[in-house]
Amino acid sequence: MGRSSLAVRFARLIQAFPLRVFGFLEWPIVRLFGRPTEPTQAIFLLAVPRSGSTVTYQAICHGLSVNYLSNIWHLLYQLPLIGGGVSARLSRSHSSDFQSQHGFVSGLDGPAEGLHFWQWWLDCGLIDSDCHTLAVKKREKRARYLGQVISVLSRNKGPFASAYLGHALVPDRLNDAFPGAALIRLRREPVSNALSLLKSLRAGESNWFSVVPRECEERDSASEHERVAAQVYWLNRRLDDAPSASEMLSVHYEKLCESPKREVEKIRDWCLKRGVSVQIRNALPDSFEYKLADLKNDPDAIKIHQALTELEQAHGKLELRQ
Fold first, then answer.
1. Interval 287-296: pLDDT, tens
2. Which among 119, 197, 292, 296 is least surrounded, fewest beta carbons within 10 Å?
């Protein structure tokens, strides 16, 4: 089942329906029992597009006892308590096959990216202008409600987990909305990351793929190599320069592929240290395959490396390349 399948198209029609009119079914429970605690019992994966976020999210959802944002929960995003409860039941015995299609994982219990969910609850889209569509008070009110929902669900179903790429645009907003939550920063070698982004870009029909920071919005006339280099550079800088960066655990995609078990245990230990209670659930594969850019023989990689070097000379080196 891909993004263009009939099932997915039908799901999008359901998402367009104003399910919030049925909010009265969950509001009394949330208001009575929703007492947010600090730390927020939640795990957020922050990453650049094509940096390995999907397989890392799958490893977290498979290997740890979390109540993750699934496709069914995303479908019911306007009713987060009901959606989270249904999701927890469906994903109780979830076991990942670690397959995906450009970030889409099939199945009702498949981990979801969550565009509609996070656009609604945290006013966070995939470009900077789509992260400022609500009045601040309204956004904060929605975030508080979601925090209450998380507090209700986490009591019996484990911490909430999400891996929405748009959070790279507003890491501090995420940190402020859910204080004490475990923030996991996924890193990937920048040229390899941009090369993977280039392949996705060429498969589409747009000048950009996925998350686009404001620093890139006026670079439509740049070459494709310069565009993906800029996207990787400025999104990494957004995360590197965020005041909340010191609150994040760094996990490297290449190391996760070499030993998923070791890195997920590292994430578990970080969560426990932060006060987010989570345990190991399923065994993970010994390794995943990954590729590094060939800077000697791949002309695309060479051009991307040059574009990244020029950006670093103009604006400063990325922490990944220091």
1. 999 999 999 9
2. 296
pLDDT tens profile 243-268: 999 999 999 999 999 999 999 999 99
| Residue 130 reports pLDDT greater than 60 | yes
Q: pTM, whole model, 2 decimals?
A: 0.93
Q: Do residues 237 and 315 make contact, with C-beta atoms less than 8 angstroms apart?
A: yes
| Average pLDDT of the residues in 184-189 | 98
pLDDT confidence band for 24 (50 / 70 / 90): confident
Instruction: Name the residue with tokens 């609604």.
Output: 120
Determine the pLDDT at residue 93: 87
Q: What is the 3-state secondary structure (H, E, C) of the chain?
A: CCCCCHHHHHHHHHHHCCHHHHHHHCHHHHHHHCCCCCCCCEEEEECCCCCCHHHHHHHHHHHECCEECEHHHHHCCCCHHHHHHHHHHHCCCCCCCCCCECCECCCCCCECCCHHHHHHHHCCCCEHHHHCCCCHHHHHHHHHHHHHHHHHHHHHHCCEEECCHHHHHCHHHHHHHCCCCEEEEEECCHHHHHHHHHHHHHHCCCCCCCCECHHHCCCCCCCHHHHHHHHHHHHHHHHHHCHHHHHEEEEEHHHHHHCHHHHHHHHHHHHHHHCCCCCECCCCCCCCCCCCCCCCCCHHHHHHHHHHHHHHHHHCCCHHHC
**Which of 96, 87, 76, 63 is CA-nearest to residue 20?**
76
